[in-house]
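Chain A, query sequence.
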Amino acid sequence: MKLLLVDDDVELAEMLKDYLGQEGFEVGLAHDGEAGVAAALSGQYALVVLDVMMPRMNGIEALGRIRMNSRVPVLMLTAKGDDLDRITGLELGADDYVPKPCTPRELVARIRAILRRSQVQASQAAAESLTAGPLTVYPAKRSATWEGQPLDLTSTEFNLLEVLARHAGRVVGKAELSESGLGRPLARFDRSVDVHMSSVRQKLGADKDFILTVRGKGYQLVKE
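Chain A, predicted structure.
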């Protein structure tokens, strides 16, 4: 499995590369945003680990450039406690984030969780489709349409929408959405699910009320 690590801290990047190599990953390195974007769009990598604070082009801008052309999973490295970078990254289509400084073990766990979700769902043999009103979700193809038009979803956005579609008409708790959609338990004060759901609503356009917020519980996809 080939990963791309984009971080201007050369010493840290080399250390993480060695650790990830011991965990069975092949790792490519880039040390600024522009080089990172070019490498991420090359099609060579299964996942991109992208630092926020970098010269020439920061990680937030780099993520925006990547998302204009690719759905490759992206894991952001953000400053610990910097909620603004974290939320902005999720809104732009990052699949998850890890606060720095982080342990290599935690980074590997997050990477594997993202890859596992993508691989398991991509390998589903069933060609089933899930339909709720104007929404149709195709789990095997990992794609969805709204009124027949394809939706441009990130990997995590698709995961969350699929979970809601499978339980259309009932409330799905944030804990279940975090486990199924993000691949990790819901942490206290973690707004990742909310940010991703806001992005999904925006992509549904005028029909944002198709996904209801049930205060104190979770989200419900309206079954029409």
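Residues 104-122 form the longest helix (19 residues). The radius of gyration is 17 Å.
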